[in-house]
Amino acid sequence: MKLKNNTSFYFGLMFILISISVSSQDRVITTGVPFLLITPDARAAGMGDIGVATSADEFSQQWNPAKYPFIDTNEGFAISYTPYLSKLVNDIFLGNVTYYKKLNERSAWASSFKYFSLGDIQFNEIVGGTIVNQGIEKPNELTLDVSYSLKLSEFLSMSVVARYIRSDLKLSNDSDFSSANSLGIDISAYYRSKSFDFSGINSVLRSGVNISNIGPRLKYDVGGRKNFIPTNLKLGTGLEMNLDDDNSITFNLELNKLLVPTPIAYFDRNNQFLGYKQPDIGFLQGIIESFNDAPDGFKEEIKEIAWSLGFEYVFKKNFSLRTGYFNESKSKGARRYVTFGTGFLINQMNFNVSYLFSTSNVRSPLENTLRFSIAFNIGESI
Fold it and tell me: For the whole prediction, is pTM greater than 0.85?
């Protein structure tokens, strides 16, 4: 990408990257580091961005680390690559690396690193009628986190995550603009039932909850601007039905809501409308008030809850087919899309691929994009 030095470009790009049009949807909730809301792994992406209550896998760190005590292998790691806005540019992407290890039958720890590249930005300036190259910058954002999970009983586990967040949008020729840093905490729980008979089919029920990215706002030096990080509540459940020894199907439902303030209207001294923006309050107050701060009351609060449906078919634990649907209110971003995916296991390597196409007038930045992830089981199976 090439453009003249303009710091507002970066703030604008931060918000459009989650594919919402604030100009047409006045009270769409926006946050800093929106890349944290991008699904990094192809398995979850293939099921409509669902993962808080699915069966445990290598990427559980991204959705619900409390699943790790239930995973079938002692140790593993995974990598994923997600092209972003690939129809416009070729150098914006999200990369992820995750590692986990079970300490014993009841506990596990895991760590992951996410890197979001906003591409190469070339700055030009006209000097004496000549275009002078002022250099290239590579703005990026990243997170590094570590989790500890513990099984409290045969059926229930909990986990806590500590996360470092860095948003590096600094311009080399703008000394007043620097990177922003924050810390985030996740708290999650996971439940997996005993096998039971459901309509004559051996079945397992799973449920999960995760509150992620609880932490202070990001602060940039320019104008003292502060942005909420995407504190998010996920609730989900899933029913796995084992048709026989080789075939199983799973149906999943997931709800999620941003726990940040709803934008409110601002007016000047002459009572002229200036637009919508989020109130200047602390992140804890913002989390509490986010359940009851929508100007249109309960009706609008319900619209702030997005939901997903996902389906997965597994054959002999070696081959999977997936599909899903993600739905968000038209007045809160209008992201609506159908996803498809597949996965297969070869020599302890689990390959997953997913594909998305939008069903909304608001096109997804991931539309018509293939996402890939690979997981490696390097420990013994349990």
Answer: yes
